[in-house]
Amino acid sequence: MPEDGAQPRPDARQAGHWRPLEGVRVADFSLLLPGPFATVTLADLGADVVKVEPPQGDFARKMPVAMFRMANRSKRSIAVDLKHPAAADLVARLAAWADVAIEGYRPGVADRIGIGYAALSAINPGIVYCSLSGYGQTGPERLRPGHDLNYLAAGGAIALPGHWLEPPRRSGLPIADLVAGSYAVIAILSALHHRARSSRGAYLDLSLAETALSLAVIRHGPELDHATRDHMYPTNDLFATSDGKAIAFGIVEQHFWEALLDAIGDLAPELRDPQYADEPGRRRMGDQLSRQLRALMATRTAAEWMRTFEGHDVPASIVLTPAEAVASPQMTAREMMIEHEGEAHVPFPVRVDGGRGAGVRWNAPAVGAHADAVLADLGYSEGDRHELRRSGVLGGSAE
Q1: Which among 126, 252, 266, 365 is least buried, having the fewest CB atoms inside 10 angstroms?
Q2: Do residues 306 and 316 touch, judged by C-beta distance below 8 A?
Q3: What are the E-state strand segments in the chain?
């Protein structure tokens, strides 16, 4: 054990080579974000993820954001027309090869194109199969279309306000998509653990709306039937500064309120009014207090306020862009950003034994870039691979 609080000695894991899932094989039939976020997490942790794309590629490739590149690093790509008759043998070989399969179509689609649980588990009874869909595989709304905002709304996750003086509004992040992907990883790893003891695979049915519901009830429970501010504090909010930036206050406990009063000195004597002396009073007078804090914070720049708070233990943070965040001294010290072949990534964000942990093996591939290698792993000869290309079942380009 290290002495005197010393960090463990650097090893390969600290250089971005911690791969606890090495040897786990994943057939990823999912597109866009929920499934790919789950599988990029598995890939970050060392799993061999084969991304099975349609011949034209994942639609996320065409979106005007970095999402495809961020959610598909360290995966191998093969482009397959799953509706082609010749795809059946390829899918069967993938099923026999894989420990895990994941898909994100509406209920019934995976079965129709030959990649459903029944077909794959008949070939590989030990496979862990995960379906991610908007509303789940059963129920009257199972075929309803949607995206993240729909699932948050259906799960009760945007009915409550997030700011003291403003109505409910959405986050800039696709919360249901990302949390569903996280839950999928937890469920997949749990199923793999169970399989190691029982030799049984599993069928995982994960609904994004139910994911949102699980988040919505964690504070208020499932009985809440009206909007409330009970989960909020007027001093736990965002406040604009004079330079167009904003500062987030995390002032909930009494000692943090007192720290703020110590920091601002005589700048705002009205905040020392006895009606704000305790949390019940601050909540009771919350509208007035929020407006006073807004007026006060607008008098200085964000940097000036942070200097004012320095040394006073005030939970205050400037609202940063992702680019500002990864370049911040804290994130830099924690080695949160990794550059690989000219591209920046933030892989699995957990440090291991004092080191960075997971890394990036390669950037997101071109459509079908790894077809030859994947097909070889599945037992196809060079002649077989040529015939598959000639038949039209494969899209993309050869390696």
Answers
A1: 266
A2: yes
A3: 25-28, 48-53, 75-80, 100-103, 128-133, 202-207, 238-240, 246-249, 316-318, 338-340, 343-345, 394-395
| Active site positions, annotated | 177
Report which secondary-structure segment, H or E, holds 387: helix 382-391
Contact between 115 and 103 under an 8 Å Cβ cutoff? The reply is yes
Segment 97-125, tens digit of pLDDT: 999 999 999 999 999 999 999 999 999 99
Cβ neighbours of residue 141 closer than 8 Å, sequence gap 6 or more: 135, 154
Whose structure tokens read 């009494």?
Answer: 254
Report the alpha-carbon angle 113-118-119, nearest 5.
55
Handedness of CA 177, 179, 185, 186 (dihedral sign): negative
Tens digits of residue pLDDT in 231-265 = 999 999 999 999 999 999 999 999 999 999 999 98
Domains of the chain (ranges, CATH numbers): 14-222+339-395 (3.40.50.10540), 246-318 (no CATH)
The pTM score is 0.92
Least confident span in 13-17, 28-32, 223-227: 13-17
pLDDT digits (tens, 9 = 90+) for 204-237: 999 999 999 999 999 899 999 998 999 999 999 9
